[in-house]
Amino acid sequence: MQRVVVNGVSCSTQALLQTLIASPLDLEIGCYEPDPALVDVAGLTALSQICHNTFIKVTPKVLKTADVLILTDTGTPTDENFVMANIASIRKVLNSAMAAGFTGRVVVAMTHDEPFTYFAQRFSGLNKRQVVGLGTFGATWRFEQFLADRLAVPAQQVTAYVVGTSQLPVLIWSWAYVGATPILRLLNDDQAVFNEAASAVQAFLAGALTALVGRLVEPILAAFAGEKLIGTFTHLRDSDDETGQVDSSPILLDERGVVTLATVAGSDDEEAALSTAIQAVQAEIEAIEQGAGKNET
Fold first, then answer.
1. Residue 55: what pLDDT?
2. What CA–CA distance (Å, rounded) separates 48 from 218?
3. Is the dihedral of CA 36, 100, 104, 162 positive or negative?
4. What contacts 83, CB < 8 A, 6 or more positions away?
5. Which residues make Cβ contacts (< 8 Å) with residue 224, sequence separation at least 6?
6. What is the pLDDT, as a whole number, of residue 260?
7. Residues of the chain with pLDDT under 50
8. Residue 66 phi/psi, 5° resolution?
């Protein structure tokens, strides 16, 4: 059984807790300092009494022994101070977790999670293999489903990737296949389909995480419990840049955590778009660090 602690103050926090309590996975679930305005502790406790998994109170001992800490949004993305409020929330819970002796894994289930994944690893000091964000995992599902619907084939026969970031997703058409057949060969350079696919992915990513977060997190927890999952998740890797590199690309998740795979190299245009997405995240992280430094002086 995995012990899972959820942190956050948003509707997606409540939605995730409900999903995990009702999940067929073997879980023990708690919420770090639940906000009574957004997290219905009594209701979740009652739900756990008729479901497979238990809902527990989070104490320092629970934090220490947690297998997974899941970070969800604090507030909504339209809030003026959304980013800095979430940075403060991440710092607070990770300070408490690390002080308690937490050595588990961190899942960043937050809106536009790339900078938050970076700061979660930085604040915790955990190995980069122990920290993962949702990234473009759901967007890849949406891309594959779009292609399956358009080509009238089973979705499980389609392999396609959306990489980059949730704000600047890059559809890798050059590595999209139905079985062993390149999809570009089937589409005959139909620009309308390319545009429709991009719009479908953008619309998916623009949606709130509330209804999606549980569906995206459950496969990650299953992978940590021993199953294997390949998906386009946000992860950190070493680079020559001081900030490091954080973006979504295909990785393997299993009981070891994040296992990087061989790089999926796209066309020149796709690689240029990916580079732009990575640079944008690095610039955002640097701006947050500079802003945080000003606030501390």
1. 97
2. 17
3. positive
4. 115, 288
5. 2, 67, 68, 105, 253, 254, 255, 257
6. 84
7. 297
8. -65, 140
